[in-house]
Amino acid sequence: MPVAAEPPPIQIRDLHKRFGDLEVLKGIDFEVGSGEVVCVIGPSGSGKSTLLRCVNRLEEPTSGTILIEGTDITDPNADVDLLRTRIGMVFQHFNLFPHLTVLGNLTIAQRKVLRRSRKEAEEVARRNLERVGLSDKIDQYPNHLSGGQQQRVAIARALSMEPEMMLFDEPTSALDPELIGEVLDVMRKLAEEGMTMMVVTHEMGFAREVADRVVFMDAGVVVEEGTPMDVLANPKHERTRRFLSMIL
Amino acid sequence: MGLYAVLVAAGIAAAFFADWPRIRRIFFQTEIARDMFPEVLTRFAVNTLVYTFAAFVFGLVLALILALMRLSPVGPYRWIATTYVELFRSVPALVTILLVNYGVPLAFGTRIPGGLFGIAAVGLGMVAAAYMAETIRAGIEAVPRGQSEAARSLGMRPSQAMFSIILPQAFRIIIPPLTNEFVLLIKDTSLLFVVGTTPLTRELTKFSRDVMQENSNATPMVIAALIYLVITLPLTFLVRRLEKRGARGR
Fold first, then answer.
1. Interface residue B155 vs chain A (CB under 8 A)
2. Residue B127 scores a pLDDT above 50
3. Distance from CA of B158 to the nearest CA of A (A)
4. ipTM, two decimals
5. Mean pLDDT of all residues in chain B?
6. Which residues of A touch B147 (CB under 8 A)?
7. Is the pLDDT reported for residue B21 higher than 70?
């Protein structure tokens, strides 16, 4: 029986991005399906973070289309602010708001953007703080938390907007090695709950274990993609092989 | 050693050749000093502080607007703000006060409301705004880029990100230079005499000068100087402590 197919959460066609003379993305076609976890790997400077940042238009694409649940967000009339409430984002350097407590970090956008009441926003915040296992830190300021705890708070902050998909921009790259596990655990749980996730990462263990699909990028193009098994264990391309041999 | 010799020689010379009783009479006459109290504190020091606050608040609001204009993506806003800042940093505060006091009624057919209070707010505030605008802009630019990216990624509009996320952090950074600006304003209120004052609206310097001229004695100015010192010294100490704490926190 043919069912009216839901458009995929993220669909990118022929995306180009240049910074001056430098073309960082050279025609990317890319898709993330509903509930899918896609890990984007590749050497630094390959354009993977730029690709991720184009999805919620923190970077303006130079050309090409980005469809979020079927809506073209590269349209100049697109409501970018509304779009961003549906896409959670987690940064390499956490970017928590240092002048607000953990609770304040989790409620401010709910209140200002979603216009939720204080009571409702705090309930949502508590629930999401519990998901990342940091209920006891609710009244702390970010600089009193470890890097791993800060990143978990940042994830809870993004989740408090109740987004339909999450973007992770090297979420563990700024962490001490012993703190990486706790963040990956939270992300793994999120994936198991069915969250649609696009993750730029260097954590090959996480990619192998959690990703539905791995995309290898180099020099602004997608070199190869497939199941973690295909890309990480049996890479077809020489460039992929060279990259993996360097980091494993 | 030679330097100490000069010091000792100067000390001896001062002790022997200066007319100490006369110096004491002119600068430190207790009866004249006593007569100034308590009004010098309860009215005239208070006036000075009121004018300072008026100028500071007006200046701060104007400075915030100017700083946001300087960071605006819209060219004309930037040009207007830059012109304003350069202009009012180059013109003596005295000139601005006179322009505001005499020019505004002539040009607009109405005086600035609030009398000297209004003149202080607008005249001194306009000058202070030029300096504070640069301070605020620097503060805004000192907040890491990731902060506004995080705010925008949560769906905040640029103005929401600015007022809820960026400015609270920027102001924390610029409290020391803003306090310095406040101290400068306290002293600049002494310029307000040029627009004419009534006995009750005088600030510290004008009042002391009047007493000085009545008595042909400099003691009132010494009292004024001491009161300025008492008001500003704690503030400058506070700035130094805040700056040290800021340097440590970073």
1. yes
2. yes
3. 9
4. 0.93
5. 91
6. 95, 97
7. yes
SS3 (DSSP) at A27? strand
B39: closest CA of chain A, how far (Å): 43
- A82 in contact with B, Cβ within 8 Å: yes
Q: State whether B154 and A84 contact (CB < 8 Å).
A: yes
Alpha helices (runs of H) in chain B, residue ranges in sequence order: 2-17, 20-27, 30-36, 39, 46-70, 75-90, 93-98, 104-108, 116-119, 125-142, 145-153, 158-160, 167-188, 204-215, 219-249
- Find the closest chain A residue to B250 by CA distance: A143
pLDDT at position B187, please?
93
The whole-angstrom distance between B157's CA and the closest CA on chain A is 7
User: Residue B162 is part of which domain span?
Assistant: 49-196
Domain count, chain B: 1
In DSSP terms, A66 is beta-bridged to A12
CATH label of the domain that carries residue B151: 1.10.3720.10
Structural domain includes residue B242: no
The tokens describing B250, both together, are 């970073």
DSSP single-letter state for residue B121? I
Q: What is the pLDDT of residue B19?
A: 87
The dihedrals phi and psi of B202, each to the nearest 5 degrees, come to -60, 145
Residue B37, token pair as written in the block: 């109290």
Kindly determine whether residue B154 and residue A98, on different chains, have CB atoms separated by under 8 Å.
no
Q: Are strands A22-32 and A10-19 parallel, antiparallel or unpaired?
A: antiparallel
Per residue in A194-206, pLDDT (tens digit) is 999 999 999 999 9
The lowest-confidence range among A172-176, A240-244, B47-51, B194-198 is: B194-198
pLDDT band at A77 (very low <50, low <70, confident <90, very high): confident
Q: Would residue B26 count as lying in a domain?
A: no
Indicate whether B247 belongs to any domain. Answer: no
Interval B46-52 mean pLDDT? 94
Please check whether residue B142 touches A, CB under 8 A.
Answer: no
Asked whether residue B37 is domain-assigned, the answer is: no
Does any CB of chain B come closer than 8 Å to the CB of residue A115? no
Q: What is the pLDDT of residue A4?
A: 57
Q: Which residues of A23-57 are buried (b: 16+ CB within 10 A; e: fewer)?
A: ebbeebebbbeeebbbbbbbbeebbbbbbbbbbbb
B157 touches chain A (CB under 8 A): yes
Instruction: Give the pLDDT of residue B249.
Output: 44
Q: What's the rounded Cα separation, in Å, for the pair B174 and B100?
A: 28
In this complex, do A89 and B165 lie within 8 Å of one another by their Cβ atoms? no
Interchain CB distance below 8 Å, A58 and B169: no
Q: Which residue has the tokens 């494993």?
A: A248
Q: Give per-residue pLDDT as tens, B50-84.
A: 999 999 999 999 999 999 999 999 999 999 999 99
